[in-house]
Amino acid sequence: MSETGLADSFRRLIAQHGPLPVSRYMGESNARYYTTRDPLGAAGDFTTAPEISQMFGEMAGLWLADIWARAGRPAGAIYVELGPGRGTLAKDALRAMASQGLRPEVHLVEGSEVLRRIQGGVLSGARFHDTLDTLPDDRPILLLANEFLDALPVRQLVMTEKGWRERMVGLDDNGAFAFVAGPSPMDQAVPEAQRAATPGTVIETCPAAATLIEALARRLDVQGGAALFIDYGHLAPRSGSTLQAVRAQEKVDVFAAPGEMDLTAHVDFATLDAIARREGVASSLTTQGAWLTAMGIGLRAQALAKATPDRADELAQAYDRLVQPGEMGELFKAMALSARDWPRGAGFPEGERRRSEK
Ligand code: SAH
Questions:
Q1: Long-range contacts made by residues 200-203, C-beta under 8 angstroms, separation at least 24?
Q2: What is the pLDDT of residues 162-211, one digit of tens each?
Q3: Interval between CA 86 and ligand 1 midpoint (Å)
Q4: More exposed terminus of the chain, fewer Cβ within 10 Å: N or C?
Q5: Residue 24 CA to its chain's centroid (Å)
Q6: If you measure from the C-alpha of residue 261 to the centroid of ligand 1, how many angstroms do you get, rounded to a whole number?
Q7: Which of 53, 91, 110 to mutate to test the pocket of ligand 1 (most atoms within 8 A of CB)?
Q8: Is 134 in contact with 218 (CB distance < 8 Å)?
Q9: Model's pTM, two decimal places?
């Protein structure tokens, strides 16, 4: 099948079997999208924080190294990254970790063959995994994931005149993709407090993210370690569809070109935080800007500008993009997880509260 064949195969599938759940549309689109290209390259579709500046990965690496040092520098801790893109975050984070005496084995969870090849070229000796399931289970985990959770498929429910239904992708009279309500009642799937709603209300959940955080929390509890997730998302629960598509740095219609554009949804950090806590893992939330500022990115930017004066403007711009509220600083959120007997990560509200309580 050609690269552009996904829209056609979705159309055939819908014509034969009826509408597809939004989760399937998003999951299959992104699987195709990521396995056929490097979306972050020079002519890429979007730019992520580690691709903006080395400072981002350095702060993430120092954050993990600090936790590891305060945990007593346990031997054998492994570095795990979910969806490492071009390997840039790992490269910068591992260099910062090495400066602190931490040289972990590298384990990458990556679904795309194209990106695995790029990552393998940047990170020699890295081991690859399809999911968390095959990671070593006998050593502490030091994990980073940037813009990974937002690529996982969301499930949507929509309120209709006849109650709650799964939100699906069907075809309109002209053969164009359109959102439709599924045939079966889904009221049972909606928490009671949210059931009364006006028709058209959409509720979004991300079962894959929930499952992943639960599995990781269980591992942290047994193996020890810490994790940092950074993503576009919200800290308090809310309703409404957040599904969006990006192509060539522009927002496009979510039906424009399945498999040829990046589909994302906001990460519901409140729910993931609750899941981690339920598994006995410490969890804390903040914004990317607040976390980077607390980590000392300002000083790092100054030091780099002093060492390379010709890059001063570029560094100032990168700093602004990563930290300022109108840029990524507030839109992007950070979630820190620590095993219960491990130290809390720096720069998060709960960690600081704990320290001052002592
Ligand atoms: N973290 C990188 C790249 C973000 S793009 C950065 O910040 O630059 C999303 C990454 O997650 C890509 O590497 C993509 O291939 C990977 N990915 C997306 N869905 C995945 C899945 N279900 N399983 C494994 N990897 C996935």
A1: 200/158, 200/159, 201/158, 201/159, 201/239, 201/240, 202/156, 202/157, 202/158, 202/159, 202/167, 202/239, 202/240, 202/241, 203/156, 203/157, 203/158, 203/164, 203/239
A2: 999 999 999 999 999 999 999 999 999 998 999 999 999 999 999 999 99
A3: 9
A4: C
A5: 19
A6: 14
A7: 110
A8: no
A9: 0.95
